[in-house]
Amino acid sequence: MIYTIIIYILFSHFIADFIMQTHEMATGKSDSIYWLSRHILSYGKTFFVSSLLFIFIAILCGYECVHLAPLIILYIFINMALHWVTDYFTSKQTKKYFSKNDYHNGFVWVGLDQFIHQITLITTFYYIFIH
Prior knowledge:
Elements: H1 2-19, H2 23-28, H3 33-60, H4 69-99, H5 103-130
Helix pairs in contact: 1-3, 1-5, 3-4, 4-5
């Protein structure tokens, strides 16, 4: 079950960080706290909806998980904050390389950004729900 939850979290992250991120957020977050914060709010809303869907599916499958709602909210807010800090730094580096048409190093930074997000999502899941 834990692996299913982690896969669901990582898929929700993909939707929140790529699909729900607008062009303005993606290009503006490296220079503007406003666009970075808009991205993080969108990210958090997407994770919230994703969590509601997960709880609904779990209840339909017979799991008792409504009592986890406060921990899920905590998990979302902690990861929003960590995502903000990560993107604050990585988006500046990514933009630096992409603006010089150095796509290899730009995507190295995109990959590092995603690696950091995945590690924080899994680590906070462990400490909030397992540990």
